[in-house]
Amino acid sequence: MTAGNGPAAASGAGDTLAAVVRQWKAVHPDLDTGPMEVIGRINRCAALLQQAEDAPLRHAGLTRPEFDLLGALRRTGLELTPGDLIRETFSSGAAVTKRLKQLTERGLVERRGDTRDRRVAHVRLTDAGRDLVDGILPEQLAYETGVLSGVDDDGQRELAALLGELLVQLEGRLRTPRG
Amino acid sequence: MTAGNGPAAASGAGDTLAAVVRQWKAVHPDLDTGPMEVIGRINRCAALLQQAEDAPLRHAGLTRPEFDLLGALRRTGLELTPGDLIRETFSSGAAVTKRLKQLTERGLVERRGDTRDRRVAHVRLTDAGRDLVDGILPEQLAYETGVLSGVDDDGQRELAALLGELLVQLEGRLRTPRG
DNA sequence: AGCAGGTGTTTTACTCGTGAAAGATATTGC
DNA sequence: GCAATATCTTTCACGAGTAAAACACCTGCT
């Protein structure tokens, strides 16, 4: 969030961000807290979702970034190079290297060198890796459906649309993913 | 995101999540990707915002969690115990201890022991700490206003409201913040 | 051919956060 | 009063991510 978050306590109605915003308004009444209400909530949602979603994955012995990597391989259906995976998962090169090492040792992915360009490697899912992803994904989506059940279908569509708008802006603004 | 994200490439229209969802649908046509469209976008927005927002803070030599801690002290206007800060910033005890050590060394916060209960400490902002927060916060909010400028005011209100709804659900569902 | 510079990947050194255990003090029940 | 237990905070050992440098290899120029 923009400016620290946290619940002063379970303060009656509203989410924790509402309480935080109230506190800031009391200290700096002239401040425009509008952006905080959006960005703060996005960050807090993300944090809580991560804690929650880690549960189904942890059950399979995977971290989210590991699952993202496997998922990228599964959904493209192709062999990907480490460079591709860096771009697909928005991770640093070092992180991808470490994850590939781990996942290879666990027999979930395999590597082979490129015949033409011996700098590059090609990574693909093993059968075990593919089965693992295919097994986890439905559980994950079912769990998420439950998490979102408090928001009705129209609300979910609206949310997805608005976040998509914002995302286009952010993705345009923030050239220079990583290295 | 629920299941790996990433841009297959700059695939025409829509954000990167749209491309990811298309890929999944091609591989698992029967999958209900609805939750992914919401949760994936929340996570991706959070990731991008963090990268972006770190810039103004980094300029002041602060990480976001450090700023969150200072912000909690500033907006409550009170002395807080480490325990309070754990709850306010949703961090682990170990993390708060480390941050307090750093921030104390930098002269941004001060500690004193409790007279009654010698287990607890009380932390408050120094003048320098208060000035730093008051200096950064407007910059931060101005930056965020710019980031959100692609979404009109009604959209922002709608977004804040929907995220608030979701947040209430998540906060209710996820008892057991940390330790 | 040979080298200058670019690209793909890994290694290195380091920071930060975490869970579990320890440490220090309060509180409760006998 | 004193052991048993609970609470607040810090320490420890470790895993994971990062930036920057190193490495390995290709490409284009001369």
TrEMBL record, chains A, B:
The keyword Nucleotidyltransferase does not apply. PROSITE patterns: HTH_MARR_2 (PS50995). The keyword Methyltransferase does not apply. InterPro entries: HTH_MarR-typ, WH-like_DNA-bd_sf, WH_DNA-bd_sf. Residues 35-168 form the HTH marR-type domain. It holds the Pfam family MarR_2. GO terms for molecular function: DNA binding; DNA-binding transcription factor activity. Keywords: DNA-binding, Transcription, Transcription regulation. This is Transcriptional regulator. It comes from Streptomyces fructofermentans.
